[in-house]
Design brief:
60s Ribosomal Protein L30, Chain: A, five-stranded mixed beta sheet, alpha+beta, 7 helices, 66% helix, single chain, 5 strands
C-alpha cells in the first residue's frame, strides 16, 4: 500500500513543481520587461541630460565671449574717459591763460566774433537769393516749355545750365540753308517765346547766332560765317521787337560763327546741332552786386 501511495504522490508533485516554475518564470519575465522599460527611460533621460549639458556649455561659451567683448568695450570707454579728462584739464589751463588777457584783447575778440556772425548772415542771404533765382529760372523754363508745347526736341531745346536759362532753336526751323530770313513757321515759335518773355519785363536776354564749320559761299554782302551768324541773330531780334513788341533795350544780338560748337562738325548730325540760334536769359548782375555792397 505504501508503494502504491508513493506512486500516486509522484505525479502530483511533478504537476505542483511545474506550476510553481511557470509562475516564477512569468513573474521574472514581467520584472525583466519592467526593468527593460525603466532602462530605456533612463537611457532617454541620460540623452536629454547630455543635450542639456551641451546646450549649457554653448551658452556658457557665448556668455564668456560676450563678457570678453563687454570688458573690451569698458576698457575702450575708460580710455576715452581718460582722454576727455586730459583734454578737459588742458582746456581749463587754456581758459586760465585766457583769463589774463587785456581788455583791448577781449574787445578785439568780441569784434571778431561779431564780424563772423555778420559774415555768416551775409552768406545765408546770398544763398537765399541764389535759391530764389534758381526757382524763378525753373519757373521760366516750365512756362517756356508749356508755351512751345509739343515741338520736336531736335528743333528747340530749353534748359538751365549753371543758373542761366538757354533756348536753343535749330536753324533748320528758323532759316533756309545759307540764308538769314526767318521762316513763317519759325515766326510762330518766336511769338510763343516772346509771349513768355514779355510777361517778365525785368528779364534781359541776348540772341546768339551759331554756324557749323562749312565756309559761307553765298556771296553778296556776307563774307563769312561771322557775318551769317550776326545777320541771323539780328533778324530774330527785329522780329521780337517789331512783331511781338519786346523792349529793344532788354535785347542784344551777337554772332559767334562756328567757334562755339556743341557737337563734332565731322558728322552730319553734329553740323546740324551746331547750326542753331540761342536765346540766353542774362543773369541780373546789378541785383547781385547790390547784395555785395556794404550795408549802411
Amino acid at each position: 500500500m505504501k508503494w502504491q501511495r508513493l506512486l500516486l504522490l509522484a505525479p502530483v508533485s511533478v504537476v505542483l513543481f511545474s506550476c510553481v516554475s511557470s509562475k516564477k518564470f512569468k513573474s521574472a519575465q514581467a520584472q525583466y520587461a519592467e526593468l527593460q522599460t525603466k532602462y530605456s527611460k533612463l537611457e532617454g533621460d541620460l540623452g536629454n541630460c547630455n543635450d542639456d549639458k551641451a546646450a549649457l556649455a554653448r551658452q556658457k561659451a557665448a556668455l564668456e565671449s560676450d563678457n570678453g567683448n563687454l570688458n573690451g568695450k569698458i576698457a575702450d570707454l575708460n580710455k576715452q574717459i581718460d582722454f576727455l579728462k586730459e583734454n578737459n584739464t588742458s582746456a581749463l589751463r587754456q581758459l586760465q591763460d585766457l583769463s589774463v588777457i587785456s581788455s583791448s584783447q577781449a574787445e578785439s575778440i568780441k569784434k571778431s566774433m561779431e564780424n563772423m556772425g555778420a559774415k555768416d548772415a551775409y552768406i545765408q542771404t546770398l544763398q537765399q537769393q541764389m535759391a530764389h533765382k534758381d526757382s524763378l529760372n525753373m519757373a521760366l523754363v516750365m512756362n517756356l516749355k508749356g508755351a512751345v508745347g509739343s515741338m520736336d526736341d531736335q528743333d528747340i531745346d530749353i534748359k538751365v545750365d549753371k543758373g542761366v536759362v538757354y533756348i536753343d532753336i535749330s536753324d533748320k526751323l528758323l532759316f533756309k540753308s545759307g540764308q538769314y530770313e526767318v521762316t513763317d513757321k519759325a515766326k510762330s515759335v518766336l511769338g510763343k517765346v516772346a509771349a513768355v518773355l514779355k510777361n517778365q519785363p525785368d528779364i534781359e536776354f541776348m540772341v546768339e547766332g551759331h554756324t557749323d564749320n562749312v565756309p559761307y559761299a553765298g556771296g553778296g554782302v556776307l563774307q563769312d560765317n561771322w557775318d551769317l551768324s550776326v545777320k541771323r541773330a539780328t533778324a530774330v531780334v527785329r522780329i521780337l521787337q517789331k512783331q511781338y513788341g519786346l523792349d529793344p533795350a532788354k535785347m542784344a544780338a551777337a554772332g559767334r560763327g562756328e567757334y562755339r560748337p556743341v557737337a563734332d562738325n565731322s558728322t552730319r548730325d553734329g553740323k546740324a546741332a551746331n547750326r542753331r540760334t540761342r536765346i540766353v536769359i542774362l543773369p541780373q548782375l546789378d541785383q547781385f552786386f547790390k547784395l555785395l555792397e556794404p550795408k549802411k
